[in-house]
Amino acid sequence: MEGAPGSNQTTLGALGLVLLLLGGFALLPRVFVPRVREAPDFNLELVANAGSLGAGKTEGKTLSLSELRGSAVLLDFWATWCGPCRAEAPIVDQVSRRWRDKGVVVVGVNTDREDQGDPREFTRAHHLTYPMVQDREGKAQEAFAVDSLPTLVVVSRSGKITAVRTGMTDDAELERLIRQAL
């Protein structure tokens, strides 16, 4: 005997709802604390606001994460084409300004490819003040296992990754993550 009329539709509808909910959860911002591990080093071109790192740093030169040892570091992986990244940039900038004199360095890690966007132009147009490096080849993105944008990586003063956050964030959440790293 077959099921009642419409039971297949009901089952398919329920299955569709479950899949929709699971897919929606995948899009939600998430924060996780990875196994404590040393942050991988990178050496990337400084493309904007190099002077905010202090004397001797200029655009066109490179920045290594290891140079920042002794400071807590917030790495903001972003791209000019990423809507949530664009919306989050002013929040990251406010946090950078607030924490700059307290031993925290914010570094934007732009992931645009050659034909996707200009992080220098974006930084100037949006009056962002924190230093930007460019990861055109995706090496830093791969080393930090960044698979979605925006992604924030918090590195402690001793060079350990203390938190990773994907998706858009707000000021209070960023403050909490930075305090954990100090």
CATH homologous superfamily identity = Glutaredoxin
Tally of helical segments: 5
The main sheet orders its strands as 1-8-7-4-5-6-2-3
The count of β-strands is 8
The overall pLDDT average reads 84
In CATH, what is the class? Alpha Beta
**CATH architecture field:** 3-Layer(aba) Sandwich
- The structure class reads alpha+beta
Multimerization state: single chain
End-to-end Cα distance, whole Å, is 67 Å
CATH topology grouping: Glutaredoxin
Shape: globular
Helix residue percentage? 25-40%
Give the biggest beta sheet. Answer: 8 strands, mixed
User: What's the number of domains?
Assistant: 1
Please give the radius of gyration in angstroms: 20 Å
Estimate the strand proportion. Answer: 15-25%
Uncertain segments are 12-29
Explain what you see.
- The chain has 182 residues and is an alpha+beta fold.
- It has a single domain, classed as 3-Layer(aba) Sandwich (Glutaredoxin).
- It contains 5 helices and 8 strands, in the order αββββαβαβαββα.
- It has helices at residues 7-27, 83-99, 119-125, 139-143, 171-181, and strands at 30-32, 43-48, 62-64, 72-78, 104-110, 132-134, 151-155, 161-166.
- An 8-stranded mixed beta sheet has the order 1-8-7-4-5-6-2-3.
Descriptive terms for the model:
single chain; 182 residues; alpha+beta; Glutaredoxin; 34% helix; globular
List the helices and strands and how they pair.
Elements: H1 7-27, E1 30-32, E2 43-48, E3 62-64, E4 72-78, H2 83-99, E5 104-110, H3 119-125, E6 132-134, H4 139-143, E7 151-155, E8 161-166, H5 171-181
Parallel strand pairs: 4-5, 5-6
Antiparallel strand pairs: 1-8, 2-3, 2-6, 4-7, 7-8
